[in-house]
Structure formats: C-alpha cells, structure tokens
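Review form for a predicted model. The reviewer records the input and the model, then writes brief findings.
Reviewer: anonymous (R2)
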Amino acid sequence: MYTNASSALLLTLTTLGLSDAYIYPAFLFGTLTYLLIMFFNLLVLITIFWSKKLHKPMFILLFNLPISDMVGATAFFPQLVFSIVTQNRLISYPACITQAFLIHVYGTGNLLILSAMAYDRYIAICFPLKYNAIMTQHKLVRIIMIIWFINLSLMVTLISLLERLKNCRTNIVDLYCNNPSLLKLACEDTEVNNYYGLFTIVLLQGGSLLIIVFTYAQILRTCVMTNQTDARRKAIQTCGSHLVVFLILQINTMVTLISHRFESVSPFLRRALGVSVLVFPPFLDPIIYGLKTAELKQSIKMLLKRNVCSSRL
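Model under review:
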C-alpha cells in the first residue's frame, strides 16, 4: 500500500545505539561541537566583514564558506542533539525533506566555493600582474551569483524529483535525511532520480576535481619555476591548507554517495563517513583558514583585542 508524503507522515531515523550512561555526555558533546562550529564560523564572517583590508577577492569568496558551513551544521546538529536527549528518532516528512535540502545545499556550496577559491589562487599566483584586471569586483559578484544559482537550482530540482514519489516505507537508513536514503523509501520507479543523482555527482564532484587538478598543477609548476623563495613558500602554504579542506570534503562526500549504490558497503562505514562530512569541514574550515592565512589570523586577533578592550572600559 502506498503512503502519500504529507505532514502527517513520520519517518524513523537509524538509531544512535546509545546506552543510558552515554546519553547526556553525547548530548553535551554534540551541543558543544555545534556551538564551537557556529562561533568559529561567525568569527571568520565578522572578521572579514569588519576588516577593510580583507575586502579582497580571496576573502570575499572565503566569506561564503562559513555561510555554507553554518547551513550544514544547523541542518544536522539541532535535530541530532534533540533526538539524543529525548531518545526519539522520529522526524516528520517535511522536516526530513528540509534537512536533506539544506545538507545537500551545504555540500554542493562547499565544492563550488572551494573550486572558485582555487581559481582565484591560480590567477593570483600564475598571473600576479593581471590579477586585479581579471578578478574585478564585477567578475567577483558574477562568480558568487553563479555559485549560489547553480547550487540552489540543482538542489531544488533534486528535491522536486524526490517529492513527486510515493512512499511505502518509513525507515531512514542513515543518521540524517538525505536524497539517497529518502529514495529508498519510494515504491515507485526511481530511474529518473538515479540518473539525475549521477549527473549531479559527475558535474559537481568531477567538475570541482578537474578545476582543482588543473589549477594546482599550474600553481605547482609556477612555484617550481619561480626563484622567489618567500613567494613560493607563501603560495604552497596557502594552497596546501586549501587542498586539505577540499580533499576532506571531496573524498568523504564521494564515498558516502557511492556507498548508497552498493549493498555490500558496511552501513556503519557509510554512516560514519556521512556524519564526518557534516562535522569535520564546518569545524576545521575556520580553524585551518584562520591559522594558515596570515592576514585573516592577524585581523581575528585585532578584532578580539578590540572587543576585550571595549568590554573593560
């Protein structure tokens, strides 16, 4: 018997498997992690907005990354910590759809933003004399608008294709709602959804990987050819941290999405990697960029000192 997707439909997320002794420690750990993610990312956002010397293409592109990270963290953590403390893994279908949409917007946004940042570093390092002429304010605004347009249009289409399906199951196979787990609830033919899912994976994962490989190959070639040791060290340091962030997101996301298509993959491994996509990038991004980017690090220190001094007056 088919069940129409409606506000009355309740779905059950995979159990967390926590014993009574670990409920409150897990609740406190999840809450603290979420608060730290929000604090660090808001600190980067406020610093970039406050410091005029950071109003450059690199940091304006970086400004979008904390926004995306906070969307992903907010889609995941509040529902998680609530279900931990209440021991209730039920979620309404509209809430599940909303969570899936926001989580996919986060993942897609991060890939596109990191790709745009790689392009910016490529122009800055390989064509330093032409950088200001190429990365104009007009072009920067256009890049940002394209990022969010592609992101939202792809994810709205993904969720629209999902919502047209009728469901006859209510058990979500993951710890949070996402497109692959919601597809497994359907009793109808999901061929169109599967093809569109593969299209988005190839476009986003493959496209971002090609951009990163090309830009970093050119950056590496330029760094090897240059005779300026300081410039080479600064370029490698900046690009190294960027590459770490990208690889964490790319590998975990790719393995998580592909694992849904193979029954032989361990559900525990799939869930662990799926959660890591939502925990590590939002937590590590502001720390990595805050510590490895000298200008941002200095501006954060100045902002904190200014607030401390103001509070004492």
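Findings: The chain has a mean pLDDT of 87.
Further findings: The first strand starts at residue 10 and ends at 12.
Recommendation: see findings above.
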